[in-house]
Each structure stands twice: as C-alpha cells, then as structure tokens.
Amino acid sequence: MAKIDEMLNEVYEQLSHVFTKNNIYCHGKNGVNTIVLFDEPELIPGQKARYKIGNLTILILKDNMPFLSVEVIPTAPTPPKTIAGLLPVHMVTRSIVINCKDDENLNMT
Fold first, then answer.
1. Residue 32's pLDDT is what?
2. What is the tens place of the pLDDT at every residue in 54-67?
3. 68 has which bridge partners?
4. pTM confidence score
5. In sequence order, which residues have a C-beta less than 8 Å from that of residue 100 and are 6 or more positions away?
C-alpha cells in the first residue's frame, strides 16, 4: 500500500505543477474523501448508491468541467481488461460527486 501512496503523491505533485491545486481533486488531499461517478444526472438523496458506477483517485477540472481523471489501481499485476474497463465507465458517467471532509460537497452533471 505504501507504494500506491507514493505513486499517488508523485502524480499529484506533477499535476499540481501544470494545474492549480484548487482545480485538482485528489482522494486524501485537501479535504477530499471520495470522488464518485454516477450514471444519472439527477441524484436522489438516500438513493445515490443505486446510480454509482465507480470511484476516481484524481479529478482535474478546467473551466469548472471535468478535464482529466486518474485512477490508481491498487492491485499488481493488473489485467488489461481491468484497465480498459475504466474507459467505458468514464463514457457513461453523467454526474460526479466529490465528497469532502467539511461537508461542502461538489456536484457536477
């Protein structure tokens, strides 16, 4: 697990040289708990789990729109099908919720 944390920190640091830190949402950084993908734009409180399709490790916004996402996969070796499976998940995503520790969540559709 330590190697994953090191890799995540390295990716975050490199991205923060190009993008401002307030445009990078990273799991475990700056108060971000989770970044969750959903397949519906209108989310019903208490029923979000039925629309959940996955989590991201890092999400970068450009002009307040999702621009780049990074997923750190914690298993090694990882089969190519697992990696390729992330692409269709991103294609069907219709909304994203970034859960923060201070309860100021960011919702994007």
1. 93
2. 888 999 998 888 88
3. 60
4. 0.73
5. 31, 32, 33, 106
CB-CB contact of 14 with 70 (8 Å): no
**All structural domains of the chain with their residue ranges:** 2-108
pLDDT tens-digit series, residues 31-43: 999 999 998 989 8
The token duo for 91 is: 């294609």
The string of DSSP codes covering the chain is -HHHHHHHHHHHHHHHHHS-GGGEEETTSTTEEEEEEES-SSPPTT-GGGGEEEEESEEEEETTEEEEEE----SSS--HHHHHHHHHHHHH--EEEEEETTS--EEE-
Centre a 10 Å sphere on the Cβ of residue 38 and count the other Cβ atoms it contains: 23
For residue 93, what pLDDT band results from cuts at 50, 70 and 90? confident
Do residues 106 and 100 make contact, with C-beta atoms less than 8 angstroms apart?
yes
Nearest CA among 2, 22, 13 for reference residue 70: 13
What is the rounded CA–CA span in Å between residue 32 and residue 3? 20
